[in-house]
Amino acid sequence: MNLIAAVDMNWAIGKQDELLFRIRTDLRRFKELTRDNIVICGRRTVQTFPGG
To answer: Which secondary structure element, helix H or strand E, spans residue 46, and what is its range?
Structure first.
């Protein structure tokens, strides 16, 4: 099992339903690591996915 998270200095992972950081290479890497795998995430995150 792996955990993937981008955090700020206070360990925050988001604010007001948005990512703290929107780094294109990080999003690409997330897609590579999670494609065709089981992903556990919250309802709000699922709603941001295509078809979510």
So the answer is: helix 43-48
Q: Residue 34's CB: how many other CB atoms inside 10 A?
A: 13
Q: What is the pLDDT of residues 7-46, one digit of tens each?
A: 899 999 888 878 888 889 988 998 999 899 998 988 988 8
pTM over 0.70: no
Question: Rounded CA gap, 49 and 34, in Å?
Answer: 12
> Rounded CA gap, 6 and 23, in Å?
10
Q: Which residues contact 8 (CB under 8 A, 6 or more apart)?
A: 20
Cβ burial of 30 (10 Å; 0-12, 13-18, 19+) is middle
